[in-house]
Specification:
By secondary structure, the protein is α/β, with parallel strands linked by helices. It contains two helices and three strands.
Length: about 150
């Protein structure tokens, strides 16, 4: 999918990204003759789920849980949202193996405030550097993080 559809700089909004992913998966499934469960509703559970609470391989919703999750709060292998959790997390607050956002926390964190082993950003707490502003910020807002 990353070779065919998702390329850096290709999308202007998360909504456009989500719509493109859904279209790609629908077309791919039709070409293979596969019929996947699609769910739409307040609570949607299916291969491709859209709803206020969406759970599926691809989930789009207020709270989205799935392999690819796009929502206000997103949990997934790829999480895109205001608050996102995942192997790759993109959001205002991003927590994941590779977290990219305004506030990014975990192994590889890239953000304005970044906390992690390999963190990059304006204010950083990492193995290589500790900016006083980042230490104060994370102590105040994330007291559970290990500050040595």
């Amino acid at each position: 999918m990353t070779e065919d559809v998702v390329r850096p700089g290709s999308f202007t909004s998360t909504r456009q990204l989500a719509d493109t992913i859904f279209s790609y998966l629908n077309e791919r499934n039709l070409q293979k003759g596969e019929l996947r469960g699609h769910a739409h509703g307040i609570i949607a559970i299916g291969g491709i789920a859209k709803g206020w609470i969406a759970i599926g391989g691809v989930a789009l919703g207020g709270v989205a849980l799935g392999g690819v999750a796009v929502g206000i709060i997103a949990f997934g292998g790829l999480g895109v949202g205001i608050i996102s959790f995942g192997g790759l997390a993109l959001g205002l607050l991003a927590l994941g193996g590779l977290a990219i956002g305004g506030i990014a926390v975990d192994g590889g964190a890239v953000g304005y405030y970044a906390f992690g082993g390999g963190a990059f950003g304006k204010y950083v707490v990492s193995a290589m550097q500790r900016s006083p502003e980042a230490v104060d910020f994370f102590k105040h807002w994330f007291p559970c993080l290990p500050m040595r």
